[in-house]
Amino acid sequence: MFEKSTWIRLPRNVVMGHDVLADVGAVIADTHLTGRPLIVTSPTPKSVAGEPIVDQLEADGLDPLLTIVETANFQAVERVIETARSADVSYLLGVGGGKAIDIAKMAADDLGVDFISVPTAASHDGIVSGRGSVPDGDTRHSVAAAPPIAVIADTNVIAEAPWELTTAGCADIISNYTAVKDWQLANRLQNVEYSEYAGALSQMTAEMLVDRADSIKPGLEESAWLVVKALVSSGVAMSIAGSSRPASGAEHLFSHQLDRIAPGAALHGHQVGVGAIMIEYLHSGEKGAWHDVRDALERIDAPTTADELGVSAEDVVDALTSAHEIRDRYTILGGGISEEAAIQVATTTGVI
Ligand SMILES: NC(=O)C1=CN([C@@H]2O[C@H](COP(=O)(O)OP(=O)(O)OC[C@H]3O[C@@H](n4cnc5c(N)ncnc54)[C@H](OP(=O)(O)O)[C@@H]3O)[C@@H](O)[C@H]2O)C=CC1
Ligand SMILES: O=C(CO)COP(=O)(O)O
Ligand SMILES: [Zn+2]
Q1: Which of 77, 202, 208, 284 could form a disulfide with 246 if both were Cys (CB 3.0 to 4.6 A apart)?
Q2: Ligand 1 midpoint to CA 4 (Å)
Q3: pLDDT digits (tens, 9 = 90+) for 55-109
Q4: Does residue 244 have its Cβ closer than 6 Å to ligand 2?
Q5: How far apart (Å, rounded) are the C-alpha atoms in residues 326 and 321?
Q6: Which of 103, 123, 131 is the best mutation target for the ligand 2 pocket, counting ligand atoms within 8 Å of the beta carbon and taking the most?
Q7: What is the pTM of this model?
Q8: How far is the CA of 194 from the centre of ligand 2 (A)?
Q9: Are residues 48 and 152 in the same domain?
Q10: Atom 4 of ligand 2, residue of closest alpha carbon
Q11: What CATH number should be reported for the domain holding residue 280?
Q12: For residue 318, what are the domain limits?
């Protein structure tokens, strides 16, 4: 008897392009959301987009509330939940980078209300996904959360964001190569369920971005458009898989460990990019595709070395040797990499 079933949750509206921030009210109306909105944002995105959205919604006769998230952690999720409950909020908007969007989507999931994703930077591929990712003590949780009912990505706002945020988003996409290889390996060695569609979509997204790398330039709205499209596509792959597997393998474990070892040193996307160079080396050896991963990162101006990330050689080796410990996710790191092997991979690839 056939007993397999799946539930793929995708956004109903993906609105992207020039000045679409002005359409927030229209999107809310189209999705039939009623009641009081809570805008969850972080300090810089607050002035770039949070406050203009408040002004727009007030002019539409709504009564929006705004709250600021400084750091992505479970306490922040709890605070947003309390704020929403005490102010009788009906739905949430996450306005900002990955931090604000993750916290808003996790709080919305707990509250059982809808959530709209308004990225102000093309810095990560969680803008569409139904996953939240937050550190918790010595570990990190990738948890199921409410996928956005709508995504509003204003390419004008995103093109004006600092260039390194866009290169971080590109690197997060380039890391899909190793994430998919790790997923396939886990399928072969551990019988982990693998989705051909999600894996192919994730890989194709990385290939399309790399093919267009030379046309991705600072300050260009066309570039913001290309990168946002790729981030949406990668998020859809995660939604199809029902996990972050298509976009998160050992290179992400390495980055999550760096977050603990050298907090705030570099952007998520940049860390996973450097991780992808080394993890590709572990998959395919010295003559393998790690050169291509490194070249693709260089072409989009993303870091390829520990120095460029602002971390030490010891930090890289620590993060590599402990990456397998933080999550029950089988990758090429298996039961762990020795210190000697970590030094060798990081040295051969020029990361340290
Ligand atoms: N759920 C998922 O599937 C995924 C989740 N993630 C998560 O997302 C986070 C990484 O995302 P990232 O966006 O790098 O992190 P942040 O949200 O911390 O944003 C990075 C920086 O960009 C700033 N910023 C955002 N928008 C603008 C803008 N328009 N102009 C100027 N500055 C801006 C932020 O300012 P400020 O400091 O003022 O907030 C912050 O300093 C991690 O926590 C990661 O785990 C990443 C990928 C997928
Ligand atoms: O960053 C992500 C995908 O790019 C999410 O992955 P995690 O589940 O490892 O946090
Ligand atoms: Zn990522």
Answers
A1: 202
A2: 36
A3: 999 999 999 999 999 998 999 999 999 999 999 999 999 999 999 999 999 999 9
A4: yes
A5: 11
A6: 131
A7: 0.96
A8: 17
A9: yes
A10: 247
A11: 1.20.1090.10
A12: 163-348
